[in-house]
Amino acid sequence: MEAWSIVRRFADRVSGLVYGQPVQCALCGAIISRQRSRRPGDEGEAMLSALTYPPGICNPCLDKLSHQMSWICEACGAPIRRPLRVCPDCQKCLYTFDGQRSAGIYDVPIKTAIIRMKYQGERWLSRPLGWLLARAASEFLPVDLVIPIPLEPGSRVRRGYNQALDLAKEASALLEVPLLDILVRDTRYSHQVDLGRRMRWGNLRESMTPKRRLDLGGQRCLLVDDVTTTGATLDEAARVLKGLGAEKVYCATVARTLRH
Ligand SMILES: [Zn+2]
Ligand SMILES: [Zn+2]
User: Fold this and answer.
1) pLDDT, tens digit, for every residue of 40-62?
2) SS3 243
3) SS3 of residue 154 by DSSP
């Protein structure tokens, strides 16, 4: 090896120790090595200390997500127009769950990150995405249990892991709340993607069951999934948990689709 290249490598090592290695934003890919960390109170929001330092998400991406979710339905968390405080669905008391929050809209760049985590084997993305989810869920604290939405039948065989469980593990660690992987899908349940909104709700009835009988009396549960589309899956899970005695069921996802 040439002397010059040894000097270069040594200089790089020292510079890495002094300035830190450059980190890419998990959402947009921007270099964020010198980014100032957000501290509680920056935006007037009380965040837990563990949620203060985003693991590899740049400030412009955090600002974009905050902007997307700046005015939302108090119950289901769907973006709505001012001065409405509750969306038309929640005015009709459509949901069984007690609240729902998402970190952002299911659109680029968060959509790309979710697809990479879910379908391209990049499980490490559950760390930054789980951090975003936990931050969105922190307004429901205190909760007693973090519960992942189970995979559809067949998905575990094809994919080998449940991305909702990965996210729930991350949220459980950050929020310091025990994880309970208790729900399972009924195998008679048919795949949802091709079904319309109305069909989805009907199709989901009785599609989930607990793995074993247990008493959730008085417990405040936090359901975790990657994406909210209609909210029907979360609501069916909430119905099962309330059937087991859960006092409150809140839901948190990384992103939600906009209604059309
Ligand atoms: Zn970014
Ligand atoms: Zn609503």
Assistant:
1) 444 434 445 557 667 789 999 99
2) helix
3) coil
